[in-house]
Amino acid sequence: MQKSTHSLKKSLLISLAVVCAVGILMVSIGKVSQGNTRQEATRTSKTAKKAAKIHLTKREKKIARHYKLTKLETRTASKTHITAIGDSVMLDVKPDVKRVFHHSAVSGSVGRQFYSLPGIVRKLKAQGHFAKYIVINLGINGPPTQHDINAVLKTVGKKRQIFWINTRVPRHWQNTTNRMIAKNAKKHANVHLVNWYKASKGHKGWYVSDRVHLNLTGDIYYTRVLARRVSEVLN
Fold it and tell me: Residue ranges of the alpha helices (H) in the chain?
């Protein structure tokens, strides 16, 4: 009987300890959640104040309507100097990127693989043709290696920001490429994922028949996704 009473008391104490631990955990989670909510509200307020002060030019108003961008997104893209490097998809969107990002240098090449990127960024940097913000669009022709990514990051340095666009391509390396991009975006504070894969889901009408390259509608949305992400990070 004493053993039974002792076991019951022990079980009650354990249950009480578990309840207390769960309660403490929930309170902690609540505090973190409240903190995040406050930070998000503060950021939203600051963004709204920035947007309220913006008066777009006639050119910017046309861009905002055409690409369905907010005033802040339009102005941020218009004022941001970027160097964009990519493959044939970058060639597709080059006119749109240069229109939205008024201060941009865009380099695209058919069949370009990621292994050529370390050499390209070294050359651009040596020539002084390297903006503070770098856009990378490579992946439809094959996945990157971590070795080449490390070489690019070393050349770019930590003071420049990289906007790396992931890919949607009906090839077996699509997921490998996107995982590598996501992994490095999480690891490096100056690498920002531009999630074209997610944005283009269910939009076959943005592509031509090969399901790799974009049509005119796809060019618009691709550029819009990039401009929105750049504005999100910079504001």
Answer: 2-52, 58-67, 71-79, 88-100, 117-127, 146-156, 174-187, 196-199, 216-234
Name the DSSP class of 145.
-
Q: Report the alpha-carbon distance of residue 193 to residue 233 in Å, rounded.
A: 10
Active site residues: 88, 210, 213
Digitized pLDDT (tens) for each residue of the chain, 235 residues in all: 555 566 666 666 666 665 555 565 565 556 555 666 665 665 566 777 778 889 999 999 999 999 999 999 999 999 999 999 999 999 999 999 999 999 999 999 999 999 999 999 999 999 988 999 999 999 999 999 999 999 999 999 999 999 999 999 999 999 999 999 999 999 999 999 999 999 999 999 999 999 999 999 999 999 999 999 999 999 9
Cα gap 102→220, rounded to integer Å? 15
Non-local CB neighbours of 161 within 8 Å, separated by 6+ positions: 132, 133, 134, 190, 192, 233
Residue-level length of the chain: 235
Q: Which of 141, 154, 158 is nearest to 86 (CA)?
A: 141
Residue with tokens 């802040």: 72
pTM of the model: 0.81
